[in-house]
Design goal:
Elements (H helix, E strand, L loop, with lengths): L1 H9 L15 E14 L5 E12 L4 E4 L7 E3 L8 E7 L3 E8 L4 E10 L2 E14 L8
Antiparallel strand pairs: 1-2, 1-8, 2-3, 3-4, 5-6, 6-7, 7-8
Amino acid sequence: MRAIWIAVSMLGCGPVAAAAPVDGARFGQVCSGIETVQYGRQAPQRAIYTIALSINLDAKRYCYATCSRGQSYPIAAPAASPLVLADLDTPEQARHLVLDRKAARLSDDQRMVMGPVVVVRHATATCTAGPFREPPAP
C-alpha cells in the first residue's frame, strides 16, 4: 500500500499522506456514522458524520482533515483506553471525543454556546485505517 502512495506522489498528484497505520503510536483513522444536532429549542436533526483523524501518541497530538495548525490539538489522555482525544468543559464549549481503537468506534459529544443559542451534537461512528498526516507542533 505504501508503494502505491509513493507512486501516486511521484506522478505529480500533489502531497500524499502515508497509508495508516504508520506504526502503533502514529496512525490515521477515517470515521463515518450518524450525528444528532440540536440548535437551541429546535427538534434534533440527524446528519451524516465523517471525520478524518491523524494521531501521534508519542507527540500527544491529534489533528483533523489536512492537519493545519488550526486543526491540531493536544490529546487529553494519550495513555487511556479507549483513547480520550478531547475532554473539554468550559462555559462556552464542552467536548468529549473518544476513540476506541479495539472496537473501531468513535464517540463525539459537543455543546457550544453561540450567543443566545446552545448547539448540542452527538455522533457515533465506525472507523477504518486512513491516511496519516503529522500533527503540527503548537
